[in-house]
Amino acid sequence: MGLDIQQNISLKPYNTFGLDVLADNFVRINSAQDFIDLKKNHQKLFEKGLFILGGGSNLLLTHDVSGIVIKNEILGIEKVKESDEFVWLEAGGGVVWHDFVQFTVDNHWAGLENLSLIPGTVGAAPMQNIGAYGVEIKDCFESLDAVNINSLEIEKFNGAQCQFGYRESYFKRGGKGQYLITKVCFKLRKKAEISTSYGAIQEVLKQKNISNPEIKDVSQAIIEIRKSKLPDPKDIGNSGSFFKNPTVSKELADKLKLNFPGIPSYAVEGSSDVKFPAGWLIEKSGWKGFRKGDAGVHAKQALVLVNYGMAKGKEIVELSEEIKKSVWNMFGIQLETEVNIM
Q1: What is the DSSP letter of 182?
Q2: Considering 57, 241, 285, 320, which one is annotated as catalytic?
Q3: What mean pLDDT is predicted for residues 137-164?
Q4: Which one is catalytic: 57, 136, 167, 226?
Q5: How far apart (Å, rounded) are the C-alpha atoms in residues 94 and 116?
Q6: Domain enclosing residue 252, as ranges
Q7: Would you say 175 and 200 are in contact if contact means Cβ atoms under 8 Å apart?
Q8: Exposed, middle or buried, 212 (CB in 10 Å: 0-12/13-18/19+)?
Q9: Does 163 lie in the same domain as 104?
Q10: Which residues constitute the catalytic centre (predicted)?
Q11: What is the pLDDT of residue 67?
């Protein structure tokens, strides 16, 4: 049975901002071979452009999409190797990220529990080097397989080749738009090394009288924290954190601490630089709860920009630019967007 290529499809159900833009052509794929066959047999559709869609959770669409939109629905989770200390798990690029994390937690394999409830798919996770609560993808990453869109060869990438950075990877820079990630392999520990020092994890565990937490306790605490802080895209369109937490020189950090007593900051590992929470900077600049039309800043978390229903992508971009300008004027810090704007 051939692939079902649909025309003039609204992408509103496929992006967490709930933005109503049209795709000229839309198709779901279930394997690397599906993509290879599609490219070989429908070359003409690719000439006006190609856009690969995962969970649509880190995406701001500002216009209709020409060419072809491919929804990665490559599924499957498989244990590929095991030792006394570790287990290697491979997951399809279309697997829902939180479902994969819960699978590892249920099986008592440690390493990803701090990344619970992050929206999106397994295939998108290494592109963004997703991270939360002191953990990043790169900490457990082993390798990934990706189809080279031009040559249609399947290539394997190790951690070094992925060039992971803070919410960055090779697939957002030099390799941008050149690969479809089909599966990702993670190396997980059989014996947990619990990480609870970041955010409010310890506080939540203390409230539950858990003094010796297991990975499922950490995962559950993080799920509760995220639900309390971040709006559910089913209720209100958003893509979680819109901006990266900025890193500045020690010199500027010292100046800011002098001018703004109580400003929260974090040391950057292996550097004298200092990281500041973008949400705090935005809130102090007066944006928390701001709304213009249907584009706004969330009332509980200033780091989250929202679509109250009928906002256009361009309106959310304009709002983000105003926020950047405001934070720059007040703190001398240039915010960078975490969300991919298209």
Answers
A1: E
A2: 241
A3: 97
A4: 167
A5: 17
A6: 237-341
A7: no
A8: exposed
A9: yes
A10: 167, 241, 338
A11: 94
81 and 181 in one domain?
yes
Q: Is 102 part of a structural domain of the chain?
A: yes
Active site residue 226: no
Query: Does the annotation count 338 as an active-site position?
Result: yes
What is the residue whose two structure tokens read 């491919």? Answer: 70
Extract the tokens encoding 46: 């690719």
pLDDT (tens digit, 9 = 90+) per residue, 84-108? 999 999 999 999 999 999 999 999 9
pTM of model > 0.70: yes
* pLDDT value of residue 194: 87
CATH number at residue 28: 3.30.43.10
Whether 187 and 140 have beta carbons less than 8 Å apart is answered as yes
Is there a domain that residue 228 lies in? no
Please, which residues have CB within 8 angstroms of residue 220's CB and are 6 or more apart in sequence? 116
What does the block give as tokens for 21? 């833009």
Asked if residue 242 and residue 156 are part of one domain, the reply reads no
Strands 295-297 and 135-136: unpaired
Give yes or no for residue 2 having a pLDDT over 80.
no
Same domain, 256 and 336: yes
**Active-site residue, selected from the candidate residues 90, 136, 315, 338:** 338
pLDDT in the model for residue 268: 86
Tens-digit pLDDT profile for residues 270-304: 889 999 999 999 999 999 999 999 999 999 899 99
Q: Where a domain ends, among 128, 154, 189?
A: 189
* 125 within domain boundaries: yes
Rounded to the nearest 10 degrees, what angle do helices 215-229 and 97-106 cross at? 150
Residues 326 and 260 in one domain: yes
Same domain as 81, residue 25: no
Active site residue 320: no
- Look at the chain and report how many structural domains it folds into: 3
The DSSP line for 141-173 is: EEEEEEEETTT--EEEEEHHHHT-BTTB-GGGT
pLDDT in tens, 56-66: 988 999 999 99
Query: Does residue 113 share a domain with residue 17?
Result: no
pLDDT at 1: 52
